[in-house]
Amino acid sequence: MRISLYFLLGLVFGVVLLQSQVVSWYRIYEMFRFEAFHMYGVIGSAVIVGVLGLQLMKRSQMRDADGEPIALADKAPSIPRYLVGGIIFGLGWGLVGACPGPIFALLGAGYSTLLLVLIGALGGTLLYGVLRDRLPH
Amino acid sequence: MTTLDQLWPWYVAGPLIAMVMLSLVYLGKSFGLSQNLQTMCSLGGAARWSDYFKIERSSRWWNLVFAFGILAGATLASEFIGLPTVIDLSPSTASSLAGAGISPGDGLMPEELFGRKSWQSPLTMLLLLGGGLLIGFGARYAGGCTSGHAIMGLSNLQWPSLVAVIGFFIGGLIVTHLVLPSLLPIISDAAL
């Protein structure tokens, strides 16, 4: 039963991603040229609502659907990992204008060429897995 | 009168995305998609090459289902709601694209890069594979993507996520301003 909720939430997210055009290569290009507010508005308002929502959930000591306290793990502290990994990700994001969520969305919207991006991303993940012990974290 | 097939404004889209994220937190999960890449590699047998892929798969199914939901939602949107026929870009963005030989048509993505014809252009295919490689490697190295860091991490006031988002932007700015201006004309020529 629970599994259908994840599907439903994905469905909502997929519709929003498409109708707000944040999956569009053009919108990403426009964002990195600082020529439109749209993308900043989407991410910014999501974060503002997100911060308020999470704070409210934590401060009210709300419990999750299973009755467990809401505990989100802190990200492990590191600079090189997030900065270098982030820059590499950004190079790809700028180039193909898609990140993991939108890859699925664009495939669903009928862009078969995103299969190449997905295959590339799986290759990159594999490469990371193999090289992981040799990278600064 | 705004209808569903018009561009959804940022103040509708952003809060809806936040609600999806908060719902996942309520269900005891966290919001992020790039974990699926690791799971998919693991399903493909990548544990042979690295312990990174020795994971408890049963804890990951929900996220693959979520990703499949995204795919289905996008199909639903494009088939039944319909997309705005014209991407309304800022004039300066549009003119820089025109200069690079990219002509925004009636789709979300430039045909020159993502159209079916790209399957016949080794150069474009290589570009899409290479871009994907950077996305996959970078997202797993940084431990998250736009969803996991920019939305989930920043919402949870995680400074590492801010570092990652700054990295995303450094990378994106380098490509957009230093690489694409010379790369796009080559790609659009190849698409002719």
Low-confidence stretches of chain B: none
Question: Largest interface, with Cβ-Cβ < 8 Å?
Answer: A-B, 115 and 129 residues
**Quaternary structure:** heterodimer
Q: How large is the radius of gyration of chain A?
A: 18 Å
Number of structural domains of chain B: 2
Largest sheet of chain A: none
Strand content of chain A: under 5%
Shape category of chain B: globular
Radius of gyration of chain B: 19 Å
| Succession of helices and strands of chain B | HHHHHHHH
Low-confidence stretches of chain A: none
Number of helices of chain A: 6
Helix fraction of chain B? 55-70%
Kindly give the count of domains of chain A: 1
Helix- and strand-based class of chain A?
mainly alpha
Kindly describe this structure.
The complex is a heterodimer of chains A (137) and B (192). Chain A is an all-alpha fold. Chain A has one domain (2-36, 73-134). Chain A has six helices and no strands. By secondary structure, chain B is an all-alpha fold. The chains are: A mainly alpha (137), B mainly alpha (192). At the A-B interface, helix 1, helix 2, helix 3, helix 4 and helix 5 of A face helix 1, helix 2, helix 3, helix 4 and helix 6 of B.
Key features?
heterodimer, A: 137 residues, mainly alpha, 6 helices, B: 192 residues, 64% helix
Brief description of this entry?
By secondary structure, chain A is mostly helical. In chain A, 67% of the residues lie in helices and 0% in strands.
How are the SSEs placed, and which strands pair?
The complex is a heterodimer of chains A (137) and B (192).
Chain A: H1 2-19, H2 25-32, H3 38-59, H4 80-96, H5 100-108, H6 114-131
Chain B: H1 10-26, H2 35-43, H3 61-81, H4 91-99, H5 111-114, H6 122-141, H7 146-155, H8 159-190
Helix pairs in contact in B: 7-8
